Amino acid sequence: MDRHLPPAGRWQLAMRAQRMKPSSLRELLKVAERPDIISFAGGLPSPYALPVERLRAAADDILRHDATGALQYGPSEGYTPLREAIAERLSTGGTRINASQILVTTGSQQALDLVARVLIDPGSRVLVETPTYLGAVQALAQYEPAFEEVPTDAAGLLPDRLSDASMRSARLLYTQPNFQNPTGRTLSLERRIALVARVHDTGLLLVEDDPYGELVYSGHTPPSLLSMAPESVVHLGSFSKVIAPGLRVGYLVAPEELMVKLLQAKQASDLHTTGLTQRLAHALLTDGDYDSHLTAIRLRYRAQCALMLKCLAQYMPDGVAWTRPAGGMFLWVTLPEQIDSSHLFEDALKLGVAFIPGASFHAISPQANTLRLTFATATPTEIETGIARLADAIKARLRETAVCVAVP
Amino acid sequence: MDRHLPPAGRWQLAMRAQRMKPSSLRELLKVAERPDIISFAGGLPSPYALPVERLRAAADDILRHDATGALQYGPSEGYTPLREAIAERLSTGGTRINASQILVTTGSQQALDLVARVLIDPGSRVLVETPTYLGAVQALAQYEPAFEEVPTDAAGLLPDRLSDASMRSARLLYTQPNFQNPTGRTLSLERRIALVARVHDTGLLLVEDDPYGELVYSGHTPPSLLSMAPESVVHLGSFSKVIAPGLRVGYLVAPEELMVKLLQAKQASDLHTTGLTQRLAHALLTDGDYDSHLTAIRLRYRAQCALMLKCLAQYMPDGVAWTRPAGGMFLWVTLPEQIDSSHLFEDALKLGVAFIPGASFHAISPQANTLRLTFATATPTEIETGIARLADAIKARLRETAVCVAVP
Which domain holds residue B44? Predict the structure, then answer.
């Protein structure tokens, strides 16, 4: 019998997979990791902020005294003491969160995937801020929603730009209210109140993603949407920015009727999150030094943010604007309109500095003259050198476009 | 303004979530974990098989010498040395697997989820053995396929019971060829050859799930479907049964055209698998003692399996039959037709022993007079006591049904 080899490309993929596009950003981030490049691109915590010694001591302790717990199959909901510690930490002021409302996830990326899986059918309307977090768009897009962008300004998303019809028909609104990725902006208290009022009127579900809230530079963030409307919010949190991303431990808080479904989706996704890393997160969260650890990260990022802002003011030409974050890891630069930041990226790379072009952070309509910088990962010296290089690349582009414009 | 609280049950869920059913098995497994119960239910590795000391030493070493690697964000494909070590181990005889064909997943449960996500649209035909692995049905069912069951016998699935039409239209066939969960059966070499021949003719994609293949009691398993038809197979593997399930490290091997999509789905799911546990798996896999560690687990499970078979022969009444596995963790019991194993479960629990009713392991048509036992978790004493108790429960049921039948 003549057994022919099967031809390539012969499998019929799911519609959602046919629509998946190769991520140009992935390639771009790989380039940014070259050792000769100062990278303001990837949202990596500072390596100096990782509590290595304490994690090593905790791992040793866990594998001495709770090895079977850490290494055997565990409950899909997560490690109970960790869920209790998270609930305790989220219970502030008048808000009371119970451990039963917490589902531990494999990073908050998984929480986004689970929420999308449980709530989105092909064509479902989904509201997202613009610009918005790229990883959220990727997670949501897998379930083939119809995105609708919500405009933002310096005080975050604009609730009065949401139509009643959109709010009533959308499956969810995704927002990062604190030190948003990519802009570093914070949703103001007034806007939170206005948004929650409209949510109560329309029944919209809010997905509040808060990976950076603990990285506040001074004082407090405004109250969470969760605390303001617990019955209307799925709240996502993460230990990636405050302990270590490689642990892949995040969580979600959800109303009970959604939790039932989210838990089933979690179980089908990966049974449960790694027992060892859940216990590591729990050990650090409860060892009494957690708040001083957080303070050290906040001071580091505040200083690095202040330095980057100073350098931007010092080196950038006229016509370049940027945000002034009150916390988090990112700031957002708006260039003169004639500069496309994806072209600027190539120039900047030649000068040895990398960022992420702003077009990546939009579900529908990219804004080409924007870019995201992180000040968390680089050292102070690298920040100074890198911003000077970036300014040079922008100035060169401006000269070039000026020449082009001048030619009749 | 009168602000009414939102009513319960107001969110429109995705169709797939509306179809998710609460798992009765979850509740059942919780009961089985009571300390007064001898459990043959959950598929948990023996706690004595966990390489705790070696994992502790490896964790200490990793957090001393590669802490940033373990704790920072990592590549979605997985930790390169681990992918290389897996590829090396899968390359036997004439089969050559490259690291680029390996995607590390958060347990092989996630591999099932990713494969299903990339390949299944609502209504897509999906072929599964019957009985089959419950976790696979859960993962696949999320994407709303039309299941079609493939009959099996003592030598595994029956390729000549597959119609050409089914094989040409189905998105995939899911099978566990080695020491299948739940039956403990192995797909014979003859059947593998027949299946692969038909796959070459019809272009069907095989999903070969092999979490137990390393747990062979003596000699070797037949060649993998991957080695026989690398262009037509997605192969899933796991470290849950040979190192520790709590690490949540598994992998898949896929043809390049599928890998591109699986990688995008992986990235959207959880960015990457935990860096620390990937390094722990790599350390154990490559430290030179791995094969002797495997031998120790095989000997343990072989002895426990032999003991359970001996006890079954000693205690079970006539009319009860069971499989004789050549590896793995499970065996499959067929009861007299009048006994429904879900009712027997209640009786057995009162006598202090638990199993999983066989109905859980079918995508469509449950077979009520079957049950799954694992001999991996319990101690030898527990195996002896537990099987005697189970036999008592079965005998009592038989007496009861005999009486019922006798009444006119």
Answer: 15-50+291-401
